[in-house]
Amino acid sequence: MAPIERITLFKIPNEADRERVLEQYKILAKTAVKDGKPYITNLAVGPLFPDPRNKGFNVAVKTTFASLEDMQYYDNECEAHKALKAVAGPVKEDVLSAYFESVV
């Protein structure tokens, strides 16, 4: 089974709120564990460059998991992800998330 690649895009209107979300991702990168061990195999996060193709989304996240089970753990049980959602949830205008197995 190939790794699961997940792309998440946020629309966060306020710059200070965007910075808080980015800082929370830095915390998540250090604290997301499953069975006491890190389980996110790769995490890339950053503000998007201004571009009309972004359609208003301004923060991008690419997360890689070894398995679909690990991604489901992230969504449903991970305490670090719950803390992130507590910060991002109230300040996001919109969010888009998609995941896939790469064929390349």
TrEMBL record:
Q: Which SMART domains match?
A: Dabb
Q: Where is the Stress-response A/B barrel domain?
A: 4-100
Entry superkingdom: Eukaryota
Gene3D superfamilies given in the database record: 3.30.70.100
The record's annotation in Pfam families points to:
Dabb
Any signal peptide, and if so, which residues?
none
Q: Which InterPro entries match?
A: Dabb (IPR013097), Dimeric_a/b-barrel (IPR011008)
Q: What stretch or stretches form a coiled coil here?
A: none
| Name of the molecule in the record | Stress-response A/B barrel domain-containing protein
Please tell me the species this chain comes from: Rasamsonia emersonii (strain ATCC 16479 / CBS 393.64 / IMI 116815)
What taxonomic classification does the UniProt entry list for its organism?
Answer: Eukaryota, Fungi, Dikarya, Ascomycota, Pezizomycotina
